[in-house]
Write a structure and sequence with these properties.
Elements (H helix, E strand, L loop, with lengths): L23 E5 L6 H8 L3 E3 L4 E6 L2 E9 L6 E11 L4 E5 L8 H7 L6 E5 L5 E5 L4 E9 L5 H12 L6 E9 H7 L4 E4 L13 E3 L10 E5 L1 H11 L5 E3 L13 E5 L7 E2 L3 E5 L4 H12 L1
Parallel strand pairs: 1-3, 6-7, 9-10, 9-15, 11-12, 11-13, 13-14, 15-17
Antiparallel strand pairs: 2-5, 3-4, 4-5, 7-8, 16-17
Helix pairs in contact: 3-6
């Protein structure tokens, strides 16, 4: 039985790239990079079975084409359908030796503004492209100091090595200890630990992790777990200004990665929020990001 001819290739979505990047073949050609000439050149021409995209180059001009093959079993198979993602006047070619072309965020960072598609010759002389880059904005809500905040730094690290993620734009939403203190003036403050490193000016500061002598006039800047520790240490719960990033009111709706000290291991998610433990591992942070954007 003769197989049915392939239907038209759907229009490429934003953030389309070759994943893995070996699916892109770069070829120098001597034809005009017009739709008619490209179609005549490619239809019926055999390509490697892993090739899904071609970047056709003529001089300094480039166009990017998506192809369908008659069969993916043989090593090479003829092209039976194609769609031009971007023509020569819509495609930029960038030489960026430091860019990991397997990483979508890195590709988006190298994209040329105004170009429909950017082809990047990157690290190890590997090549990939990104079509209509549109990074997904992810809010990272975290307590500051320390600065840079750990959760944000971990998220940056995960985005940089996870090749399955789409391009991600991490937006830091900082819960600043100094701002919380300024909004809750007190004669003396109690912070959760010495690692906070906040500068609260002339007001005396004690740290709960040192188990200082109890005071009636201090204000605890901390979360629910800190209040639990205080009750265990001293038998009561002091006045408290909440520091929990999980409870922070979001200025605008977007996928949010945050943390909570009441969560000791694992991950909690809703439709648009991923919560990791205080002191989360990179694996937990990575899984949180994946839940939000994949």
């Amino acid at each position: 039985m003769t197989p049915d001819p392939p239907g038209p290739i759907p229009a490429a979505r934003p953030n389309t790239r070759s994943h893995p990047y070996r699916g892109l073949s770069v070829q120098e050609v001597d034809i005009p990079l017009t739709p008619a000439a490209v179609e005549e050149h490619l239809l019926g021409r055999e390509v490697y079975r892993r090739t899904d995209y071609l970047a056709l180059r003529r001089g300094g001009a480039t166009c990017v084409v998506e192809v369908r093959k008659a069969d993916t079993t043989p090593l090479f198979s003829p092209v039976v359908a194609l769609r031009i993602l971007s023509g020569a006047d819509e495609t930029a070619w960038v030489h960026a030796p430091d860019v990991d072309v397997g990483n979508a965020t890195a590709l988006a960072g190298a994209a040329v503004p105004g170009a429909l598609t950017t082809v990047v010759l990157g690290r190890f002389e590997h090549v990939n492209f990104i079509h209509r880059p549109a990074p997904v904005r992810v809010r990272v809500t975290e307590v500051v100091p320390p600065s840079p905040p750990k959760l944000h730094a971990q998220a940056v690290q995960c985005v940089a090595f996870d090749e399955d993620l789409p391009p991600v734009d991490l937006v830091l939403d900082a819960v600043r200890v100094e701002d919380v203190a300024a909004a809750h003036p007190a004669s003396r403050y109690l912070l959760p630990c010495r690692g906070s490193g906040a500068d609260l000016g002339d007001a005396p500061v004690a740290y709960l992790d040192t188990r200082p002598a109890a005071r009636d006039d201090w204000l605890l800047i901390g979360c629910e777990r800190s209040a639990q520790f205080h009750e265990h240490f001293y038998g009561d719960t002091p006045p408290r200004a909440d520091l929990c990033p999980r409870r922070r009111a979001a200025p605008e709706r977007m996928p949010t990665l945050t943390k909570c000290c009441l969560l000791e291991r694992g991950l909690e998610t809703t439709d648009d929020t991923a919560v990791v433990p205080w002191g989360a591992s990179l694996d937990e942070v990575r899984e949180g990001l994946r839940k939000l954007v994949l």
